[in-house]
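Tokens as discussed.
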């Protein structure tokens, strides 16, 4: 099993900013502000008069800001290329009110940016918006998770289809929240009805069983039933609820397409499983 390859994106370039890494011949990184499927993000009344962008280090000890009109350019100057930065962009109207906002994923390692481009998706505030591209296939009735703080992953469900036709529901599909494009992933060991994510791994649950899939190692392992749970069918199709201490809960009472149960599958932070009950 291999990690998904990101589909090529075609961004709308609104303005760019140069970031210089510290070296004898520093590379230049461009920041592209992209607006996705909405074409009037900057021109909609009230129109954007100025764009402000801030780069912040993960450690909290570095913050850089710059401004430019839409379509303009600016330069952050010399920035160490070994830092982890996040970028936030805001667009303000002539009265100074924020009407457009967006941010990058967190902790971008500047030296590891391929292609020399950091995209930042922005949208009108208090409105729905669609980022560029989309999933290659639609999985009907399927769960979805965020993997490695970068990929939206979906797999399983009742059916999977695209403009090219139907596909096996076990196939996986990803949307890259850095590259802003869809990607087709490998087939999973089972058609998931519920999922839980752990950094670079996902737990897939269907009526017949459960499997951990590790994208770092390219392997998967079937999981034994936790003590007291008669079948994974008692929780498969249930919604996943996340807790602040790193645990996840697949709730049998919320099962889709099946009889609700009182069973709750607890997935601990280390990936081990336990059974809880609502009553």
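Sequence:
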């Amino acid at each position: 099993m291999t990690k998904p390859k990101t589909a090529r994106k075609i961004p709308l370039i609104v303005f760019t900013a140069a970031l210089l890494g510290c070296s004898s011949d520093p590379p230049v990184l461009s920041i592209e502000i992209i607006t996705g499927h909405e074409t009037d993000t900057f021109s909609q009344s009230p129109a954007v008069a100025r764009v402000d962008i801030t780069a912040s280090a993960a450690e909290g000890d570095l913050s850089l800001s710059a401004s430019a009109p839409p379509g303009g350019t600016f330069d952050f100057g010399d920035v160490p290329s070994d830092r982890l930065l996040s970028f936030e962009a805001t667009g303000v109207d002539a009265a100074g009110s924020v009407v457009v906002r967006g941010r990058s994923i967190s902790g971008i390692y500047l030296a590891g940016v391929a292609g020399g481009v950091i995209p930042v998706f922005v949208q009108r505030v208090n409105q729905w918006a669609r980022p560029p591209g989309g999933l290659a296939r639609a999985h009907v009735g399927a769960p979805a998770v965020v993997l490695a703080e970068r990929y939206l992953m979906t797999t399983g469900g009742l059916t999977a289809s695209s403009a090219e036709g139907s596909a096996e529901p076990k196939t996986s599909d990803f949307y890259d929240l850095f590259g802003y494009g869809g990607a087709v992933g490998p087939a999973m060991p089972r058609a998931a009805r519920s999922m839980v994510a752990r950094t670079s791994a996902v737990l897939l649950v269907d009526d017949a069983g459960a499997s951990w899939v590790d994208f770092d190692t390219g392997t998967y392992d079937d999981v034994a039933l936790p003590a007291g749970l008669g079948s994974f069918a008692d929780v498969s199709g249930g919604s996943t609820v996340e807790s602040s201490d790193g645990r996840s809960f697949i709730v049998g009472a919320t099962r889709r397409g099946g009889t609700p149960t009182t069973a709750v599958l607890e997935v601990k932070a280390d990936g081990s499983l336990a059974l809880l009950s609502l009553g």
